[in-house]
TrEMBL record, chains A, B:
CDD domains cross-referenced by the UniProt entry: cupin_YdbB-like
Domain of life: Bacteria
GO molecular function: isomerase activity
Transmembrane segments: none
InterPro entries assigned: Cupin_2, PKS_Associated_Protein, RmlC-like_jellyroll, RmlC_Cupin_sf
Residues of the signal peptide: none
Name under which the protein is recorded: Mannose-6-phosphate isomerase, cupin superfamily
Lineage: Bacteria, Pseudomonadati, Pseudomonadota, Gammaproteobacteria, Oceanospirillales
Keyword Methyltransferase: no
Organism annotation: Billgrantia gudaonensis
Keyword Isomerase applies: yes
Residue ranges occupied by any Cupin type-2 domain in the UniProt entry: 38-98
Keyword terms of this UniProt record: Isomerase
Amino acid sequence: MPSGVVNLAEKFAKVSEFWSPRVVAEMNDYQFKVAKFEGEFIWHDHQETDEVFLVISGSMGIEFREGTVRLSEGEMYVVPRGVEHKPFADSECHVLLIEPRGVVNTGDEGGDLEAENDVWV
Amino acid sequence: MPSGVVNLAEKFAKVSEFWSPRVVAEMNDYQFKVAKFEGEFIWHDHQETDEVFLVISGSMGIEFREGTVRLSEGEMYVVPRGVEHKPFADSECHVLLIEPRGVVNTGDEGGDLEAENDVWV
């Protein structure tokens, strides 16, 4: 009997820390990660890959050097590889991230907000 | 100024046909497709890739040879490569599909429900 249904609300309920993506599913060599955002992240980029943000609940923004994008529930955005960006959320926002296995949340920037990678919830 | 916010509800509103995935975004060589399901699809598989179903509204099921999975809004499922499956929905269901560019909805089965591939909305 097949199993493996991923209920996103149940997954978000298990995440307490902001800015700490947790893997919920893999498709080929890509991962789906739930993340709670609140406050400001840091400027960073991912040289090797695009990165998708899909807002499941709440709203958030992404600062780019050229301007800011705002995303509400049911909206998604593809940040192209190599493009500097800084996510932020005025209040708690639940986001599904989709990107290849191995992507670190802070790119090469490191720092206090770097989350342990490849942690499942 | 960055643009490219994808509002899924707006995209679904532009799709009239059932079982005809329409591309809304690309991440590397992967595509995000909106699809409306109602009724029964056909048995098929994808030999080359996993395939993700994420239910945006409504509910649906996926029949496998070993049993049936049911998905509601906010739930996702990864169909592994090469596994025969038959999606169905008792009433209209809005689904986000994620899979590599080039995947045909019916696999190698063809038939009346084969949708033109790589069509954007």
